[in-house]
Write a structure and sequence with these properties.
The structure holds 2 protein chains of 2 kinds. Chain A is mainly α. Chain A has one domain (about 55-265): MetI-like fold (Orthogonal Bundle). Chain A has 15 helices and no strands. Helix content of chain B is about 70%, strand content about 0%. In chain B, helix 4 (about 75-105) runs antiparallel to helix 11 (about 210-240), helix 7 (about 130-140) packs parallel to helix 12 and helix 9 (about 165-195) packs across helix 11. Chains A and B meet through helix 1, helix 4, helix 5, helix 6 and helix 8 of A and helix 2, helix 4, helix 5, helix 6 and helix 7 of B. Chain A: This is Carbohydrate ABC transporter permease.
Chain lengths: ~270, ~300
């Protein structure tokens, strides 16, 4: 039934997939270890003596360090808020029937689909009037528009899978709903909560448009600063690629941890 | 949504207090209202005003539908929408076909280690910060030392001024998008393929030796929901697409890569014409809401 070339073709195909997905990433990381001369070489240099100069340079650059710090503060704070607000909401959506529930779902899903530019314009004006431009808070809050729906979605799914018998038993013991949420749903739903938190962190960490528009100098996030190096005559390619690597590395590790849930996080559960 | 927050509509269920879900939902709904709905209403109001912050002396008078008529009669806005559609029609077939091929390779038995490795590496493009994808694109497609031209040379085709020419810049953002989102299609199709019951697939394999008819008659029905989700989600993603294109081309050269979100951002934050930009954003929002409706109607039947 199968020709003998099958396994070879299969292996070649899979190797091609791996090369395809890793090449641009590899090219960035390798450029971050090349000297400027090696980067600018044409034809491109495949074998080179690695240098750590660009990493030394960015770790001594207060702008890069500050930006990574800002990204860390903002992504962590917005994720914590999203979980604190989203997990109880998910509990209600998983366990109660009420009128308007489908409208609520619709609202959460349209948030996933709306372009950030729609909110960036009014939020810019509002932040300008409230003197909130270039603060951590404005980004922490605006990132909730996409984090909260993600957390609600994934946690609702997770809470629905917790057997209702547990809850019945607790209710017979006289536990109220808040106790049931705290003592049963939070601990048993922890894996789903963790996954949703990781997604929330990744999306906040990766965001550029809001950060570009709503920050000036003090609160620039890592993607904004990396992008800002892209101007002028002689581009510091090694520095840019080293910064890019530093930005991408932590989220890649996080993404590998939740790789089994990747589809769920990106589609908000549309495909099971 | 406001109906959910009004308690009396909540039906007491299984002995729960009728206000209980309200207390669990209120903080999230309230927060999303403040940060999501209120600014949207503000944008709607702004879209009826002349609002150029580069010229504050003019004030911000209400001008009725002036912004909308000027946007709808403005060729560049339509051009950016058409370009977005063209981008979608260009990237999606490639991503679907490549994604399906990858999913089939990963679904096939054997090659355990290589297969798990490939499965894991698929996550890398998806997690890469979109802005950094743009930075990588600037490096790869550089006219003088980019590795893309080296590939073309190796194939015997002359080098290209990728980011400096209209067709080249469009091709470059297409390629980077295909790189980033093909894994997404592959993972969705792989999930579909793994839903095919093992017995049925085995029986079909005994019946026919043609992989094509296996795909068409047995596997395709399981791939359809994922495909529908892809068509709608990717259309929303393309309407949202900003970071990668902004970093790579800023919409240029000329307007060769001026996708709708990039274009609106420029009108708002380079020209500072926030009234016009708000009108454009509201129109974009209307398109998105129609898409979301479609999405829900097709894919979330069980919720309603």
């Amino acid at each position: 039934m199968r020709r003998s070339s099958g396994p070879i073709l299969h292996a070649l195909g899979l190797t091609a997939v791996i090369l395809f997905t890793l090449f641009p990433f590899y090219w960035m990381v390798s450029a971050s270890f090349k000297t400027q001369a090696d980067i600018l070489a044409s034809p491109p240099v495949w074998l080179f003596t690695p240098t750590l100069d660009h990493y030394r340079e960015i770790f001594a650059d207060s702008k890069v360090i500050g930006a990574v710090g800002n990204s860390l503060i903002i992504a962590t704070a917005t994720t914590a808020l999203a979980v604190m607000l989203g997990a109880p909401a998910a509990f209600a959506l998983a366990r109660y029937e009420f009128r308007g529930k489908s409208d609520l779902w619709f609202w959460f899903i349209s948030n996933r689909m709306t372009s950030p530019i729609v909110l960036a314009l009014p939020v810019y004006i509002l932040a300008l009037q409230l003197k909130m431009l270039d603060t951590h808070l404005v980004l922490i809050l605006i990132y909730l528009t996409f984090n909260l729906p993600i957390v609600v979605w994934i946690c609702t799914d997770q809470f629905k899978s917790i057997p209702p018998d547990l809850e019945q038993a607790a209710r017979l013991d006289g536990a109220d709903q808040f106790t049931i949420f705290r003592k049963i749903y939070l601990p048993l739903g922890a894996p789903g909560i963790a996954v949703s938190a990781i997604f929330s962190f990744i999306f906040s960490w990766n965001e550029l448009l809001y950060a570009l528009v709503l920050t000036r100098r003090d609160v620039q996030t890592a993607p904004v600063v990396a992008t800002s190096f892209m101007s002028g005559y002689e581009l510091p390619w090694g520095k840019i690629m080293a910064t890019g690597t530093v930005i991408v590395l932590p989220v890649t590790i996080f993404a590998l941890i939740v790789s089994r849930h990747m589809v769920r996080g990106l589609t908000m559960g549309a495909t099971k | 949504m406001t109906r959910t927050t009004s308690g009396p509509n909540i039906r007491p269920n299984r002995g729960y207090g009728r206000w209980t879900p309200f207390w669990f939902l209120a903080p999230a709904v309230f927060t999303l209202f403040i940060i999501g709905i209120y600014p949207t209403i503000f944008a709607l109001v702004t879209s009826f005003r002349r609002y150029n912050i580069a010229r504050p002396r003019d004030g911000f008078p209400f001008v009725g539908l002036e912004n909308y008529t000027s946007v709808l009669t403005d060729g560049t806005f339509w051009a950016s929408l058409f370009l977005t559609a063209k981008f979608y029609i260009t990237v999606l077939p490639v991503e679907i076909v490549l994604g399906l091929v990858i999913a089939l390779l990963l679904h096939k038995t054997g090659m355990g280690f290589l297969k798990s490795l490939a499965r894991v590496t698929l996550v890398v493009p998806l997690a890469t910060t979109y802005a950094v994808v743009g930075l990588i694109g600037r490096l790869i497609f550089n006219r003088d030392f980019g590795v893309a031209n080296w590939f073309l040379d190796a194939l015997g085709v002359g080098g290209l001024d990728w980011l400096g020419s209209q067709a080249g810049a469009f091709a470059a953002i297409v390629i980077m998008d295909i790189w980033q989102w093909t894994p997404f299609c592959a993972l969705i199709f792989l999930a579909g393929l793994s839903m095919v019951p093992g017995e049925i697939e085995e029986a079909a394999r005994l019946e026919t030796s043609s992989k094509w008819s296996l795909l068409k008659h047995v596997q395709l029905p399981y791939l359809m929901p994922g495909l529908t989700a892809l068509l709608i989600l990717r259309s929303a993603d393309v309407l949202k697409l900003f970071d990668m294109v902004f970093v790579m081309t800023r919409g240029g050269p000329g307007s060769a890569t001026d996708l709708v979100s990039v274009y609106i951002q420029r009108v708002g934050f380079r020209v500072f014409d926030l009234g016009t930009a708000s009108a454009q954003a509201i129109l974009l929002l209307v398109i998105t809401i129609l898409l979301s409706r479609l999405y829900i109607r097709v894919l979330y039947k069980e919720v309603n």
